[in-house]
Write a structure and sequence with these properties.
By secondary structure, this protein is an alpha/beta fold. The protein has a single domain (2-292), classed as TIM Barrel (Alpha-Beta Barrel). The protein is built from eleven helices and eight strands. The chain has an eight-stranded parallel β-sheet. β3 (87-91), α4 (99-106) and β4 form a beta-alpha-beta unit. α3 (66-79) runs parallel beside α4, α7 (193-206) runs parallel beside α9 and α9 (228-242) packs across α10. The two termini are 18 Å apart.
Length: 295
C-alpha cells in the first residue's frame, strides 16, 4: 500500500541543540540518546520495505529564526532526487508583532504548507506542557496571528491536550475556511478512566468540524509502555471520532522511534483500519495527507 507520511522530523545536534538536552530523558517519550542525529539516511533506513512516496516535515525548533528551518529543509528537498520533504510545516509564534513578516519569509519556499506552534499545557503535570499558560487559544493577539496563516493559505497543526479540546473546538469553528490538523491522536498521555473519557469527548467534538483532520501518530511517544492492542485501541477510537476521510497516517519519527519501529507503527495503523474499505484505507494511508498538505 502507498504511504504518505504526514509527520516526521530531521535534526542534528548542531541544527537542533535542544535534542541534546533530552538525550538522557526529559521528554515524555523517553531518552533521545539513540536519535541525536536523524537525517535522510536514517529516515530512509527506517522506512525501508514500505512504499513511502511522500513525506511532510514538521517544525522542531531549528537553531535560528523560524524561517531558517524552512530554508534548510527546502535546500534538502531541492538536492534529493525524490524531493523529500515534499511538504514543510514551519514554526511561528503567532503572538509576536512580526507574524506576517515571518509568514511571508516562510512562503518564499516552494514546499511550505503550514504552521505549527505547540500549545499543550497541563497545570498539574508540567512534563506534558510545552508552554507556560493556557491562554493562547483565547488570546486576541494569537487569534489575529492565526487569521494571517489563513490569509497566506497556510494550514495550522494544532498540538494540544484533551483538556484543551473544548476551547480548540471554538477556534476551529471560528475559522471555517482554514485547514487544521490535530497532532498525534490528540495527545492521550493520561490513561486513567476519567482522562480517557475526557479525551474521547474532546475528540468526538473536534471530529464534527469539517475543517480539521487528525494525524494517526504519536502512539509510541504518548505511551512508552504500549502494546499492539493498546495502540490499536487508540487509533481505532481516533478514526471513529474523525472518520476515514479526516484521518491521516503519520510516523512522528524519530520521536516515536524511541519506543518502536516504523514497521510496528504501520502494522498498528493498518490493523486498526482493516475494517474500512480498500478505498478508505488508501485515503488514510496516503490520500488524506496528500490532499490536506497539497502535495
Amino acid at each position: 500500500m502507498e504511504i504518505v507520511d504526514g509527520h516526521f522530523h530531521l535534526w542534528t545536534p548542531e541544527t537542533h541543540p535542544w535534542v541534546g538536552r533530552v538525550k538522557d530523558g526529559g521528554h515524555p517519550a523517553g531518552k533521545f540518546d539513540k536519535i541525536q542525529h536523524y537525517m535522510m539516511e536514517e529516515y530512509g533506513s527506517d522506512c525501508a520495505g514500505h512504499n513511502v512516496t511522500k513525506s511532510v516535515h514538521v517544525q522542531c525548533f531549528y537553531e535560528g529564526k523560524p524561517q531558517d528551518e524552512t530554508r534548510w529543509l527546502q535546500n534538502i528537498a531541492d538536492t534529493i532526487p525524490n524531493g523529500v520533504p515534499h511538504g514543510i510545516v514551519g514554526y511561528c509564534d503567532l503572538t509576536t508583532d512580526n507574524v506576517e513578516v515571518t509568514l511571508q519569509e516562510h512562503c518564499k519556499y516552494a514546499n511550505m504548507r503550514g504552521i505549527r506552534q505547540l500549545l499543550n499545557y497541563h497545570p498539574d503535570k508540567p512534563h506534558y506542557s510545552e508552554v507556560n499558560s493556557d491562554n493562547y487559544l483565547t488570546n486576541p493577539k494569537w487569534l489575529e496571528g492565526l487569521s494571517l496563516c489563513g490569509k497566506h493559505n497556510l494550514s495550522f497543526d494544532i498540538h494540544i491536550l484533551p483538556r484543551q479540546m473544548a476551547t480548540a473546538y471554538d477556534v476551529v469553528k471560528k475559522f471555517p475556511n482554514m485547514q487544521f490538523i490535530l497532532d498525534h491522536c490528540g495527545l492521550p498521555y493520561e490513561k486513567e478512566d476519567e482522562a480517557r473519557k475526557l479525551w474521547k469527548e474532546g475528540m468526538t467534538r473536534l471530529g464534527q468540524c469539517d475543517n480539521i483532520t487528525v494525524k494517526l501518530s504519536g502512539g509510541f511517544a504518548t505511551d512508552p509502555k504500549w502494546t499492539h492492542q493498546s495502540a490499536v485501541e487508540v487509533v481505532k477510537d481516533t478514526v471513529q471520532c474523525f472518520g476515514p476521510k479526516k484521518s491521516m497516517f503519520a510516523s512522528n519519527f524519530p520521536v516515536d522511534k524511541v519506543n518502536g519501529t516504523f514497521s510496528e507503527w504501520v502494522k498498528v495503523v493498518t490493523d486498526s483500519i482493516s475494517g474500512y474499505t480498500k478505498e478508505e484505507q488508501q485515503m488514510i494511508m496516503a490520500g488524506n495527507a496528500t490532499k490536506v498538505y497539497r502535495l
